[in-house]
Amino acid sequence: MSEYKERHENEIFTKVLKAGRRTYFFDVRETKAGDYYLTITESKKNFGENGEATFEKHKIYLYKEDFKNFQDMFNESTDFIIEQKGEDVISEKHDKDYKSKSYTLESDEEV
């Protein structure tokens, strides 16, 4: 059996979350023993100097025995962030008045 076919035959359930240049895949898979586990994959699209797209991927394997502790720590961590910084995104790119640094430098040089 090919690696591709074997890899996809054990996929039971998939959800995809697109978030800008990142895509998150939540895949329920089946072990050889017939139990289920979760893989969470972050795929980030990057462009090389030649304009060619590449994908950087990171994967987490999460097994049932770790679900409760993972969920508790995830919730505690995300709750902490929201309590400390609120739900608004804080970054230059998300600022309504954001101007790229190159634009700012060019503007300053003309003055």
Automatic annotation (TrEMBL):
GO molecular function: purine-rich negative regulatory element binding; RNA polymerase II transcription regulatory region sequence-specific DNA binding
Sorted UniProt keywords: DNA-binding
Pfam families in the cross-refs: DUF3276
Record SMART domains: PUR
InterPro entries associated with the record: PUR-bd_fam
Superkingdom per UniProt: Bacteria
Family membership noted in the UniProt record: Belongs to the PUR DNA-binding protein family.
Protein name as it appears in the record: DNA-binding protein
Native source organism of the sequence: Soonwooa buanensis
